[in-house]
Amino acid sequence: MMHERNSMTSGGKTRRILDLAQSNPAFRNKVIALGALGDQMTYPSMELFQRFVPLMLEIAAEVGLLDGIDQSAADELNEWFLDSANELAYLVCNRQRITPSRKFKKPIGNVFVSWTVKNPRDREATRGVKAALDWFNIDYFDYTEHQLDDEADMSQQITQQLKDAIAKSRFSVEIVSSEASRPWVQFERSLIAKNASIRRFLVCLESDKARFMRMSAELEARITRIDMSGGRFGTIQTESMEQWMRQAADTSYFATVDFSYHCYKLADVIRSLLSGQRKRHPIFSCLDAFRFSVLCQQLQQ
Any alpha helices (H) in 110-154, and if so which ranges? Predict the structure, then answer.
């Protein structure tokens, strides 16, 4: 039993937490609260750590992750929770898939969605983009949803999964924020860049990203940049770290009709390119976009 607990894979631990969160709203709220603390732990303090650890242990105990483990395994579990709290919160509160509009009965794809769970704005933006892809009945690959398989914990299998998904994708939607420099995100996007047939959509969540990102002329020809920042977000050089962190955690913009409409327009373009059909008349498009935006607002309530 001890060996089984100590050797449980990341996917196994995640699946155990998600299964309980699905049936236990109180437990689900604890996981979300742990993720909120994890967002703040980018620049950790002793006060944050003292709040994080008891909640982490409570969650681990409720799903039996503390049963029969030694100190070494406990240390590994602590590290896993510190690294995974953001991802767990995303997975347990991930909105249900939106039913495709009746106008798009036939599914079409494939689109690769690239982003990082470590930034709260990334997570909310990704939910909006995925909701719009669902509305247009566009198949997509979100790697975060595929990490629950225990077998996917091996690095070689992870690499092969990414290569296979990217190789068959005609489009990529890349959520670009201040977290884009994380090593695994860079690796993922290097694979995308090597696929000469893929067309890339860069969704910029910070107003200065569109300015600072530079690529070769060959890559630029395959890239469409979409600014979804609403002009609100940018790198803060003069304010305190506390103010920077408050802004980094501000996700209110991603609950607005304006943001939903941006997501709708992006998915509309991708659908028309995938199907080879012309975009619909602007009047019908606006009416449909309004229905989609209203549905997004209802799902957030």
Answer: 120-135
> Which of these, 14, 84, 21, 22, lies nearest to 52 by C-alpha position?
84
Residue with the two structure tokens 């009746």: 102
Closest C-alpha among 204, 162, 106, 147 to residue 13: 147
- The domain over range 108-300 is classified in CATH as 3.30.460: no
Residue pair 104/136 in contact (Cβ under 8 Å)? The answer is: yes
Sign of the Cα pseudo-torsion (237, 220, 133, 111, in order): negative
Q: What is the pLDDT of residues 219-268, one digit of tens each?
A: 566 777 777 766 554 444 444 555 555 565 677 778 888 888 888 889 98
User: Model-level pTM?
Assistant: 0.78
Sketch the domain layout of the chain as residue ranges: 2-92, 108-300
SS3 75: helix
